[in-house]
Design goal:
The protein has a 5-stranded parallel β-sheet, with helices on both faces. Helix content is about 50%, strand content about 15%. The protein is globular. The protein is built from 6 helices and 5 strands; from the N terminus they run βαβαβαβαβαα. The protein is α/β, with parallel strands linked by helices and about 160 residues long. It has helices at about 15-25, 40-55, 70-75, 95-100, 120-130, 135-160, and strands at about 5-10, 30-35, 60-65, 80-85, 110. Helix 1 packs parallel to helix 5.
């Protein structure tokens, strides 16, 4: 079963989105990573979604730049959570992608992370999955403890270096 689908609107988005797949892999969450476009390949997008819905996909992550309609096109075809990653690649720094991803009509929400926020998209997908998967929930708690320990260590080192 594919738990998370990662759709990128263009192969050129891969360097930005690759970190999303890395996080899911680290957490042992199954995913499918592919290119599909809301505008150039709408039939492919629809076919992929039919396959993924039949396979029990739980969360969709969609990354796109410029017009960035991929997440909205997916949200229109599922009641599963959709997470949008606006990709900064246009002459206006990704603001167009951010607006296109975040401004959805009522009833078709897309949870939107920061521009190029691929890793947080994966973490959010993991949190959604953790609602019904204690293994993933335990991994998330352990990761948070690791972050806490890293900050405490950095604080101690910095304070030690700046003692008067």
């Amino acid at each position: 079963m594919t738990q998370v689908a990662i759709f990128i609107g263009s192969a050129s988005d891969d360097p930005v989105v690759r970190g999303c797949a890395d996080v899911l892999k680290k957490l042992g969450i199954s995913y499918r990573y592919t290119v599909t476009s809301a505008h150039r390949t709408p039939e492919r997008t629809e076919k992929l979604m039919e396959e993924l819905e039949a396979d029990g996909c739980k969360v969709y992550i969609c990354a796109a730049g410029m017009a960035a309609h991929l997440a909205g096109a997916v949200a229109a075809r599922t009641i599963k959570p959709v997470i949008g990653i606006p990709v900064a690649g246009s002459s206006i720094g990704g603001l167009d992608a951010l607006y296109a991803t975040v401004q959805m009509p009522s009833g078709f929400p897309v949870a939107t992370v920061a521009l190029n926020g691929a890793k947080n998209a994966a973490w959010l997908a993991a949190q959604i999955i953790a609602l019904h998967d204690e293994r993933v929930a335990a991994l998330l708690r352990a990761e948070r403890e690791g972050y806490k320990a890293a900050v405490e260590k950095a604080a101690a080192e910095l304070e030690a270096a700046h003692r008067a």
